[in-house]
Specification:
Layout (H helix, E strand, L loop, with lengths): L53 E5 L13 E7 L5 H13 L3 E7 L11 H9 L4 H11 L6 E5 L17 H16 L6 E4 L19 E9 H8 L5 H12 L6 E9 L2 H11 L2 H7 L3 E7 L22 H6 L11 H9 L7 H15 L5
Parallel strand pairs: 1-2, 1-8, 2-3, 3-4, 4-5, 5-6, 6-7, 7-8
Helix pairs in contact: 1-3, 2-4, 3-4, 10-11
Length: 370
């Protein structure tokens, strides 16, 4: 039986071999619960026709560092406490792996408690008090020989108190966002700038304008306990993405699931895996969806409502089962068509396309698995 080496970059998030934890990562991955998914009973996945979608991962423990099918790495940084050495190291690693790079810049305040002074944050940003912080990070990113996605001030429309930039001040946020993009473009004129709401109904109030947004990001989580409490049923990838996709598609921008995670029992996770692998259905339902980035870590903050800190990490035992799961249509795709599809993701730069091509060529040239 001919098997698929890489069904879908997202599924290869289920690849892991413990690596070095990055600075600031909460804990080593030794405590990953592997009982949630039994590799022996994972569902068979249907062959698919590849779509021009960028697949990536936030992987602070390096569990997926050897995954040749992932095209993007994601990193979070605190702009008021920029660790230049760590960022330069991570950029070098992404470049060695032929991956693009997405950075989420978290604009905390300069107070001893980073959340204090949020009521003055936007005014201080516009006044230039964080320009040095912006310039330092964007200058480091400029050394990267590949496509860079800059995601600043995410989930701004949900003022829960977790982020000082998530406030009931849409006008202030928009002014601050525009200022940051203007400053960063001085160092990174070819970067893709990602405006990334959580996906709430009021997100449109925070949209900073077409000139400042290249990609719209959304956050998509599947937590079985919460599904049962709020919907009285288990939801899946299509449900969760569709609800938020409808709220951002009218902007007409490429859409990324900038953070994806799911946690629950075996049946629940398998449902998400199967739906997230159905490229044809995704292309039909979400034609603007051009990127999916998995959050391969434990949730750093407790969720409200007694849901604790969900563990989005996936067990390493799934690796062999997923990576050997049905190979199919990729081997029949011409190189010219692959290049054409990848090129649609990078309208500003050809460098990122070149960074992505090793994975594409690997798909085309890899011998069939039996």
């Amino acid at each position: 039986m001919r098997n698929l080496y890489a069904v879908f970059g997202l599924l290869l998030f289920l690849v892991s071999s413990p690596g070095n934890a990055c600075a600031g990562s909460p804990e080593a991955p030794d405590n990953v619960v592997t009982s949630a998914i039994n590799p022996a009973v994972l569902p068979d996945l249907k062959p698919y026709a590849p779509a021009p979608t960028l697949f990536g991962v936030y992987d602070p423990h390096g569990a997926m560092s050897q995954n040749q099918s992932l095209a993007l790495e994601h990193k979070f940084v605190f702009w008021q406490k920029h660790d230049r050495k760590a960022l330069v190291r991570d950029l070098a690693r992404a470049q060695e792996r032929g991956r693009s790079f997405m950075i989420t810049i978290e604009p905390y305040t300069k107070a001893a408690n980073w959340r204090d002074g949020g009521d003055r944050l936007f005014d201080e940003i516009v006044a230039g008090k964080f320009d040095r912080n912006i310039a330092a990070i964007c200058a480091d990113l400029a050394s990267f020989e590949g496509d860079v996605f800059v995601r600043w001030g995410h989930e701004m429309e949900d003022p829960t108190g977790r982020y000082p930039w998530a406030r009931k001040n849409a006008g202030g946020y928009k002014s601050a966002y525009r200022h940051v993009v203007e400053q960063c473009r001085k160092k990174l004129p070819l970067a893709q700038y990602v405006w990334s709401p959580k996906g709430e109904k009021n997100l449109k109030d925070y949209y900073p304008g077409d000139d400042f947004v290249d990609v719209v990001g959304i956050s998509v989580w599947g937590l079985q306990r919460m599904d049962q409490d709020f919907y009285a049923r288990d939801r899946g990838f299509f449900d969760a993405v569709g609800e938020k996709y409808r709220r951002v598609s009218h902007f007409g921008k490429p859409v990324f699931v900038a953070e994806l995670g799911f946690a629950g029992d075996e049946k629940y996770r398998n449902k998400w895996i199967v739906q997230a692998s159905d490229i044809q259905a995704i292309g039909t339902q979400f034609p603007l969806l051009k990127g999916v980035v998995y959050f391969n870590d434990r949730e750093p903050h407790a969720w409200p409502g007694n849901y604790g800190k969900p563990d989005w990490r996936v067990p390493s035992k799934v690796v062999d089962r997923i990576s050997s799961s049905q190979l199919a249509a990729i081997s029949g795709l011409s190189l010219n068509r692959m290049i054409a599809q990848v090129s649609t993701l990078f309208p500003r730069s050809s460098v990122g396309r070149l960074a992505y091509l090793p994975s594409a060529v690997l798909f085309l040239l890899r011998p069939s698995l039996t």
